[in-house]
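Comment thread on ticket #2218

A.B. wrote:
> Attaching the input chain for the structure job we discussed in standup.
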Amino acid sequence: MKLKTLLEILVVSTRLGLTSFGGPIAHLGYFHEEYVRRRKWMDEKSYADLVALCQFLPGPASSQVGIGIGVIRGGVLGGIISFIGFTLPSVIALIIFASVLHTFNMEEAGWINGLKIVAVVVVAHAILGMAQKLTPDIKRKTIALFALVITLLWQTAYSQIGVILLAGVVGFVMYREQTLKEEKSNVARFPISRRFGYIVLSLFFGLLILLPILSNLTSLDWIALFDSFYRSGALVFGGGHVVLPLLEQEFVPTGWLTEQEFLAGYGAAQAVPGPLFTFAAYIGTVINGWQGGLFATFAIFLPAFLLILGTLPFWDSLRSNPKIKGALMGVNASVVGILISAFYQPIWISSIFTAVDFALAAILFSMLVFWKLPPWVVVLAGAVGGIVISYF
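C.D. wrote:
> Ran it. Output below, let me know if you need it in another format.
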């Protein structure tokens, strides 16, 4: 039964890794559709709680959510397999691209534009579902509105964290007298001990402190590379779009790769599915072949993995504490507002330019929401539709 569960996690996460275009917010939409709506591996509240936790943590939020879902389903090994399935397709694509080094421009291809429109549809569907569950009353709708306005007008790496913290305080004050009627559904439990959490968190901070010291004391290139990628993954809030310029600062001025090589990889990273952090695979491959690509991928994702595994056991007990429930109600409402903000910018404004684009979005939305077609069918239809409308 365990092997069957792990194989199921691998198959589902790999399919998501092959079809999840549109960046971290779109990934959360794909996860919501697959894991919450279709497979019911966790309920709306547990999913929103997990998303809120991963928004707090540095690193790739969507990858950490995927790891957390894998842990719920199949333990730590399930989390590892979920991560591999979701990440490996884009890693392989970027390693191949770096190996061939064809600098063709894929960003303007019709099928890429079609996939961007798919991302619009998936995120819109996720927002509608989460809003119904998480903002049922006027207070939480107001919190969501506040989160939307602030994160839309003040777009920094720390605005989301500040909004979530403030929404938690507001929720705690507003709902501290209220007893929540919990739904009798799959309340997720994370099968990780606190002792394991302490060990993992100690490893995270230990590496963060020791790697720069080792890099300065030795002249080994692989330690310097590991340090650069690890710090990039450990200290970045806001996801892949934030880590890309940071990686440029780490590797272009130091001569590891040229500006032209960096920009070629940047374009490729936008065109492949999965997390943008896999751009590290491209950089590593340019520096040291496919082995370097795998090494860089491991180094940049390791801190995200350690953080989510280290915090899950404590999060499980905190979110079931009656004193924390009100705060989580506020936090979950703010996540809805943050998703709407990200839905407008960058997803909507970088995808819907013409009436034809909007028409394709309406068709794809109907396929997903009304006709209940599988997400991979919608992705394929979006790619084909993008090619067709490119001739208009």
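A.B. wrote:
> Thanks. Noting for the ticket: The chain has one domain: 1-100+108-177+192-392.
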